[in-house]
Amino acid sequence: MGGGNSHQRKMAAKAKERMADEVTERVLQKIEANPIAARAPNTNVEPKITSPSIKEKLGVFWGSTPVWSAICLLIGAYASQVSLKLLWFGAWVVLSSEIWRVRFFEGRTLKVVGNVTLSLILATVIYQIWKKSPKPEQPLPIDQKLNTFGD
Asked: What is the secondary structure of 30-95 as a DSSP string?
């Protein structure tokens, strides 16, 4: 209940009750005036099922996890030929953007501080994994590096 003294609250409750009764009475009058409209719809008629449009199908396709996994796999395969650091950085960008999208934290300040903190923790973890990951023993010859960009 709202503010005011007990008398005012009692009057407000009575007014609310009167309005509810009035609405109920008007609905009943409309039903009595037009009984056909108040009747339940015919349940024997089956709803028409339409197939999804191409636009809807493309939306479902584009939003599917396997499609994005394949796209990221292809991007990762190319990025790893250019630089493994790019691949690790790309993974951090994707994971950090998901942290921001999910909105772990509520409130303007807490959201920014929390998401930045989680992103920095994630960057630290990814950096530590990258440091411990196996590296190529010798760099690629210059002709193989040029072929990577030529293909």
From this structure: HHHH-HHHHSPPPTTSPPPP-PPPHHHHHHHHHT-HHHHHHHHHHHHHHHHHH-HHHHHHHHHHHH
106 phi/psi in degrees, rounded to 5: -110, 160
Measured between alpha carbons, how far is 25 from 128 in angstroms, rounded to an integer?
A: 72
79-128 confidence digits (pLDDT tens): 777 777 888 888 888 888 888 888 888 888 888 899 999 999 999 999 99
At residue 114, the 3 state secondary structure works out as: helix
Q: Give the Cα separation of 136 and 90 in Å (integer).
A: 20
Q: What is the pLDDT of residues 44-58, one digit of tens each?
A: 666 677 888 888 888
pTM over 0.70: no
Region of residue 139 (phi > 0: left; psi between -120 and 50: alpha; otherwise: beta) = beta
Instruction: Say how far apart CA 112 and CA 130 lie, in whole Å.
Output: 26
> Is residue 56 packed enough to be buried (19+ CB in 10 Å), middle (13-18) or exposed (0-12)?
exposed
Distance CA 122, CA 101 (A): 15
